[in-house]
Amino acid sequence: MTMPTNAQNTKPVRIGFIGAGGICRQRHLPGLNALDNIELVAVCNRSQASGQKIADEFGFSEVMTDWKQLLDRDDIDAVFIGSYPNTHAEISCKALDSGKHVFCQARMAATLPDAERMLQSAKDHPELVNMLCPPPHRMPWEAYLLESLASEKYGNLLHVRVVCSNGSGYGPLIFRDLVEFSGQQIMFVGIWAETINTFLGEYQQLSADFSTPIKTKEGEDGNVVEMEIPQVVTISGILNSGISISEYHSGIAKHENLNQIEWITDRGTLRLNAMTSLEWSESGKDFEPVQVPENQTRDWMVEADFIQAVRLASEGASESERPVSPDFAEGLKYMKKMAALHLSAKEKRVVKLSEI
């Protein structure tokens, strides 16, 4: 995605942060601190102590423990939401109603109805920017891949295959293991749903099977918790383009760490190993690195994209003049897929996305 470059507003964008956890500390806060004219006003974590650590590390002026009070402040222009998915709808809608631009960390929400609420709030406030964290799997060769697929540079596409397999399910109990926090989100399935939508479009229909081989985990308090979120997911379906697609997601494979999408064509296979390499194998030959032109590569610029859109919005730019990707409308598309997967696995049948 290429953002407009005509934003001249140098007034500081004042930021509030709700739920500054792992990815926020690794990516978003360093990304914001690298930008000019950013003011980190307040951070709100679950505890004063954890919030203070973030404030000390990144330079927030104030620490808060009540996110509603943060949203009531008049000295904050935009809010980053990094809390658990089950909180995203309530906080995002309240933030938009409070006149704040919203950046919501992945995943979009716990359920499809929550995501629909978020999109409706965004539609009610077209003057405000709404953005979700893009899946890193789209980077850094998105422009090149979109052009190559559209032009059939690597041949006529016949089938798409996604494999995301690792041993993450054996780790300690975290929020991603718990339906109460994650809702319908499953491992990396949502990230890949967004990625597939970007490169190939949405599913027309799909069937899914779930299994949860690791039945229980022990929490920090010593209590045994039954696992409900699937640890193995298989998906097969047809995209709106008519192309067939298969996906395999696993968190129980200690022996491997695969995270890739393959475009199988009548000439060979194009493989994206997420965020690490792009390879091509023609006519059964070994995979070789693809040399992507420098002008079709793009580093992680998520925070810069959001802030630039906020600046443009403050100058009166319309939504079409300040595009961000993904926004809540794009997010709703992958949330529909997540709902379809759960329905298919529950009812043991093919689900058309038009049903959702």
Written overview of the protein:
This protein is an alpha/beta fold and about 350 residues long. The chain has two domains: about 15-135 and about 300-325, 3-Layer(aba) Sandwich (Rossmann fold); about 140-295 and about 335-355, Dihydrodipicolinate Reductase, domain 2, CATH 3.30.360.10. About 30% of the residues lie in helices and about 25% in strands. It contains ten helices and 17 strands. Strand 9 and strand 10 (about 225) form a beta hairpin. The model is unreliable at about 1-5 (pLDDT under 50).
SSE layout and pairing:
Elements: E1 13-18, H1 22-33, E2 38-44, H2 48-58, E3 62-64, H3 67-71, E4 78-81, H4 85-97, E5 101-104, H5 112-124, E6 130-132, H6 142-151, E7 157-165, H7 179-182, H8 189-200, E8 203-211, E9 216-218, E10 224-226, E11 232-239, E12 244-250, E13 258-265, E14 268-273, E15 277-282, E16 288-289, H9 302-314, H10 328-347, E17 351-352
Helix pairs in contact: 4-5, 5-10, 8-10
CATH superfamily of the largest domain: Dihydrodipicolinate Reductase, domain 2
CATH topology assignment of the largest domain:
Dihydrodipicolinate Reductase, domain 2
**What structural class results from the helix and strand content?**
alpha/beta
Task: Sketch the topology as an H/E string, one letter per element.
Answer: EHEHEHEHEHEHEHHEEEEEEEEEHHE
Output the number of helix runs. 10
Question: Rg from C-alpha positions?
Answer: 21 Å
CATH class of the largest domain: Alpha Beta
**Major sheet: arrangement of strands:** 16-15-14-13-7-12-11-8-17
**Overall structural domain count:** 2
CATH architecture identity of the largest domain: 2-Layer Sandwich
Portion of residues in beta strands equals 25-35%
Portion in helices: 25-40%
Gap from first CA to last CA: 28 Å
* Uncertain stretches of 5 or more adjacent residues: 1-7
